[in-house]
Amino acid sequence: MKITMKEVDHVARLARLELTDDEKERMRAQLDSILSYIDKLNELDTSAVEPTSHVLPMMNVFRDDEVRPSLSQEEALANAPDRQDLFFRVPRILE
Amino acid sequence: MRPTGRISSSASRGSWSDRVDLCRLTVHELHELLRKREVSSTEIVRSYLDQIMQRDGKVRAYMTLTEEAALQQAGAVDRQLAAGRVLPPLAGIPLAIKDVLCTKGVRTSCSSKILEPYVPPYDATVIRRLKAEDAVLLGKTNMDEFAMGSSTENSAFFKTRNPWALDCVPGGSSGGSAAAVAADLCAAALGSDTGGSIRQPASFCGIAGLKPTYGRVSRYGLVAFASSLDQIGPLAKDVRDCALLLQAIAGHDPCDSTSANLPVPDYSAALAGDVRGMRIGIPDEYFIEGMDPEVDGAIWTAIRTLEELGGKQEKVSLPHTPYAVATYYLVATAEASSNLARYDGVKYGFRISKPADLLEMYQKTRREGFGPEVRRRIMLGTYALSAGYYDAYYLKAQKVRTLIRRDFERAFERCEVIATPTSPTPPFTFGEKTEDPLQMYLSDIFTISVNLAGLPAISIPCGFTKAGLPIGLQLIGKPFDEATILKVAHAYEQATDWHRRKPPL
């Protein structure tokens, strides 16, 4: 077994995904089969290989720090599921 | 191909049955008719809207239609024509846009419940560029949710059908865009390609589809799936149209720091000339056991056609090909798990009603907002990035990615383009691969390496199975050398007529 139910629980919590018990078992089995397939990467010795995170030979891209036009507060809030005045509204965080 | 006199003269009469013919034309043919003022943009747009009314109930390519805006835009183009203005190649031409690209004021759902109510306050750079050319946007097309899938079955809303066989999938994830082009529901379309999502549906729907080099086209306003792999590109009725669309959308954009600051060549001019002496790389690893024999046969016939045109077959090796799918499903899911963390029900999109607290709001919003495949990939990516597994999975995959890139660098020392099948099989039927995610992943086996290496590649039609299902040929190029694959694809297209065939709708 590549991945346990406990790990599925842990990863679901990290990803902020709620899963029912049935879904968890199904997810575990599917991830298990995908991870077993992925194991074939271990056939390759990569100890001397540099990782590729990006294909373009570019480093940091800078621009001048100057004020430019951007969305208005109204435009930025137009899609908010819940708002109050000029703020996004969420459930209370502090007691 | 020039439009026949019958089409142009009858179009100006404008009877219904003649207007259907307009929908069969390519972008460059429509541009010619507009330029000569034999037809108006309004007539073209109305023909397409009629055609959509007639056919889209069967095909279901569109998520959203923007009929009124399209007719307004067409009217504006017609006024410019009447004023004698010379129009850019896409002016007045009706295009469809995959629902992964932000369109100001037009819902952009990514075929996901979590973005169902989302109306972007801005245009993606590619949309801004199309609008600058006065292109007409007909609507937004269906896709696999967040571009995750190879059949468009993962749309949260409905299934799109393959115009060539309504019981088959159109491919994915740009299945709506591919089906819309194949069924003549738009003149051409934009899609996005993270692991084959333009090329595989183009292959399945018998049309041309181009994934540009990573960095060639700005990703600003493309809803992110895997940021180091995603590219936007055209799906079209022929190669010349692909060149026209790429021309319109390519180039540096300060809003996307990964867009390359390199000159953009004239892609239409690059189509001229022949392929004599061109070395066509054939990788052994792409002609594997288990490949559909009809696909295999069609690809070899296509390679012989390229030889007859003066191309030279060159054996090349891409030895790490068998590791591409595993590498991709770590890199892409890791990036996706990070990109999709933004869907928290706070700033836009769906939120569950009356959450007890913040954690419940996140967990239940994401549970109800994401479909099963998206949840699976978020889980896999989160796992691969989590403490204790990062080195074994994510870092390992990034290292194998280096080996896959090097394979291509070596192969391209011996050839100018690489020819392969786009997909190991013709279109499959609904439900055939939905139960086993791994089988669905393996259907991208020939397209995925190209994204990992950041290369440009095009799929063009190269035959049909006995059952009448399209088969696609993939041509892979060197970085930023779209011009060469367009040239080879165009030469092949000139020598064949697969691209002129129409589905029996």
Describe it for me?
The complex is a heterodimer of chains A (95) and B (505). Chain A has 95 residues and is mainly α. In chain A, 35% of the residues lie in helices and 4% in strands. Chain A has three helices and two strands, in the order H-H-H-E-E. Chain A has helices at 5-14, 21-38, 73-77, and strands at 83-84, 87-88. The longest helix of chain A has 18 residues, at 21-38. Chain B is α/β, with parallel strands linked by helices and 505 residues long. Chain B is built from 18 helices and eleven strands. Chain B has helices at 5-13, 16-24, 27-35, 41-59, 67-82, 125-132, 175-182, 199-205, 239-249, 267-270, 293-308, 324-339, 358-369, 372-385, 390-411, 437-442, 448-453, 482-495, and strands spanning 62-65, 94-98, 136-141, 188-193, 208-211, 231-236, 279-283, 312-316, 417-421, 457-464, 470-476. Chain B has an eleven-stranded mixed β-sheet with strand order 1-3-2-4-6-5-10-11-9-7-8, with helices on both faces. In chain B, helix 11 (293-308) links the parallel strand 7 and strand 8. Chain B is globular. Residues 1-17 of chain B have low confidence and may be disordered. The chains are: A mainly alpha (95), B alpha/beta (505). Chains A and B meet through helix 1 and helix 2 of A and helix 12, helix 13, helix 14, helix 15 and helix 16 of B.
Can you describe this structure in just a few lines?
The complex is a heterodimer of chains A (95) and B (505). By secondary structure, chain A is mostly helical. Chain A has helices at 5-14, 21-38, 73-77; strands at 83-84, 87-88.
